[in-house]
Amino acid sequence: MAGLIQDLIQVLEEETLCYKNLLELSKEKTDILVAGDTVALQELTKTEQTMVAKTLRLEKKRDQVIDDIALVLNEDKNSLTISKLLERLKNEEERERLKAVQSEIKNVLEDLKRLNEQNRLLLNQSIDMIDFTLNAIQSTRSFTTNDYSQGGQMQSTNGRSFFDARQ
């Protein structure tokens, strides 16, 4: 059992490190979104995807370790939580390490959630600005020309483009 707890602590520490890296990337993303640098955003997104893939691999590994612990403890793996596991641990050192990792990962995930929400709002603002600009350009499609070819009458033109290629 002690080996499984050590494995769980190790996986959780690695996951925490991944989440910390994602948090740093999210901070960079905020700066990039504010600057409007789409090239840097694409590069950062690639790096983020790599980190997320690593995190998913660690989650699978953690699930396997938890399955093994649940089997040893004769517990349902779906209801086994770190808090329940902490209650059952006899080794004080393991309990403290697991509790510290639990607290750290919880704090990092809260920060990451908050920053991701902020970035989502920034992205939505950027999309809204792009939509506004496109609508402003498209609303100028209808214009009046100074071409008096039809008996001195002003002509209205509804073109498909903002630019009049005939002039």
Automatic annotation (TrEMBL):
Gene3D superfamilies the UniProt entry points to: FlgN-like (1.20.58.300)
What residue spans carry the region label Disordered?
Answer: 146-167
SUPFAM superfamilies, per database record: FlgN-like
| Pfam families in the record | FlgN
UniProt feature, compositional bias: Polar residues: 146-160
Q: Which UniProt keywords apply?
A: Bacterial flagellum biogenesis, Coiled coil
Which domain of life, per UniProt? Bacteria
Biological process GO terms, please? bacterial-type flagellum assembly
Could you list the residue ranges forming a coiled coil in this record?
86-125
Q: Which InterPro entries match?
A: FlgN-like, FlgN-like_sf
- Record protein name field: Flagellar protein FlgN
Which source organism?
Answer: Defluviitalea raffinosedens
